[in-house]
């Protein structure tokens, strides 16, 4: 079959590579436009573009895929099947009707749970026992199409968002090729999603990583793992000059049965910084102040001494609870 691949994130690379190495013809790759990245705002190409160009595959980068010119260019490629994975735009009905076989999406969660962009982080944050990939028909409604295949993987107790991202990226290609075979043979099932079981995981931004110490330690420990490396988690602290500063928090944070006011520093030593939560406490081992490097708790305390009754706080507090 002639397959058009639509993807932007690097989670899509193993699936694109599998298609390029298969008996099928990848007739084109559609990805987002190059974007400026970093302090110097240097233009970077999406990873699927780089892979496609190396393979000699035509690349389209429309700003808006629903624009008439974009639809005409995609139609001209005459795809039998469109495969979407981490593309980043809602597809219009006119595009879904282009391929005669189907338009399918490789989604990084076990639908109908965690529809939306933060589908990798969602299961860890919620404390689920498993995650996986779902291959479904694309509809105009976000992640609500009929399912063709689901492949599950268990979540380790120390699972992080980054590690699960890589696991699902490696899981997807075999599932995708299996579905393509089923579509060719006319044996692909269509299973309607149960809307009552659905959850939504909206796109995350950096500020979503702010830790609310009034929440139970168990929830915060999961969030620290789920949001690593993106968007990361952080708290605020007051430095020796009285300035409110951001402090990035890394896994693994250890649960401990200690009590105190939310955000209160219960203990600070080379063994870690013990922070009271709404229920129980967390031991923070690795942290990174804004403008600094990632360090152990002991290294941080050398330049930023903390004592019991000091507090970590959230942005919403505006620094008012930084010290007692």
Q: Can you characterise this structure?
A:
With 324 residues, this protein is an alpha+beta fold. The chain folds into 2 domains: 2-197, Formyl transferase, N-terminal domain (Rossmann fold), CATH 3.40.50; 206-317, Roll (Methionyl-tRNA Fmet Formyltransferase, Chain A, domain 2). Helices cover 24% and strands 25% of the residues. It has a 7-stranded mixed beta sheet with strand order 5-2-1-6-7-8-9. The chain has a 4-stranded antiparallel beta sheet with strand order 10-11-16-17. A 4-stranded antiparallel beta sheet has the order 12-15-14-13, covered by helices on one side. α1 runs parallel beside α6 (161-185). It is elongated. The relative contact order is 0.10.
As laid out across the biggest beta sheet, the strand order is 5-2-1-6-7-8-9
Q: Which class of secondary structure composition applies to the elements?
A: alpha+beta
If helices are DSSP runs of H or I spanning 4 or more residues, what is the number of helices? Answer: 8
What CATH calls the topology of the largest domain is: Rossmann fold
Domains (count):
2
Rg value:
23 Å
* Helix share, percent: 10-25%
Q: Which CATH class of the largest domain applies here?
A: Alpha Beta
CATH hierarchy: architecture of the largest domain? 3-Layer(aba) Sandwich
Number of strands: 17
Instruction: Write the H/E string, N to C.
Output: EHEEEHEHEHEHEEHHEEEEEEEEH
Mean pLDDT: 94
- CATH superfamily of the largest domain, please? Formyl transferase, N-terminal domain
Q: Overall 3D geometry?
A: elongated
Distance from first to last alpha carbon? 67 Å
Beta fraction? 25-35%
- How does the major sheet shape up? 7 strands, mixed
